[in-house]
């Protein structure tokens, strides 16, 4: 574990790079690929590092978080319940009124176009609420 001062001097993007590298397995590869797709979908996205180690992507508000667990990489969309999901990507946290998540397991294929559409829809929703 890095000492606090060293971690504090790194940018959120550098901390996310570090997380991907430290995982060193399929989860790091998956998180890296999901990150790249988020950035492709929304070139204006900013990266944050919150809650002692959770990658967060924002554009006019939170789009999603990227959490890593033993068996899944979870993308949790802050306002997922309000987003159209015609490809039915959301497969976790379905019972809540606000958030929705996608659990990716080892070997899962990513529906890249559907994921990018969700990211763009989340950013658009954030921007529409920010203008009010």
From TrEMBL:
InterPro entries: YdhG-like. This is DUF1801 domain-containing protein. Gene3D superfamilies: 3.90.1150.200. It comes from the Bacteria. Residues 28-122 form the YdhG-like domain.
């Amino acid at each position: 574990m890095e000492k606090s001062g060293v971690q504090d001097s790194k940018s959120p993007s550098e901390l996310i790079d570090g997380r991907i590298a430290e995982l060193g397995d399929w989860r790091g590869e998956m998180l890296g690929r999901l990150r790249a797709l988020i950035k492709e979908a929304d070139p204006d996205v900013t990266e944050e590092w919150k809650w002692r180690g959770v990658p967060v992507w924002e554009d006019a508000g939170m789009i999603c978080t990227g959490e890593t667990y033993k068996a899944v990489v979870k993308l949790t969309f802050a306002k997922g319940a309000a987003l159209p999901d015609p490809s039915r990507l959301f497969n976790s946290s379905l019972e809540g009124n606000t958030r929705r998540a996608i659990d990716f397991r080892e070997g899962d294929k990513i529906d890249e176009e559907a994921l990018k559409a969700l990211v763009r829809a989340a950013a658009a929703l954030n921007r529409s609420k920010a203008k009010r």
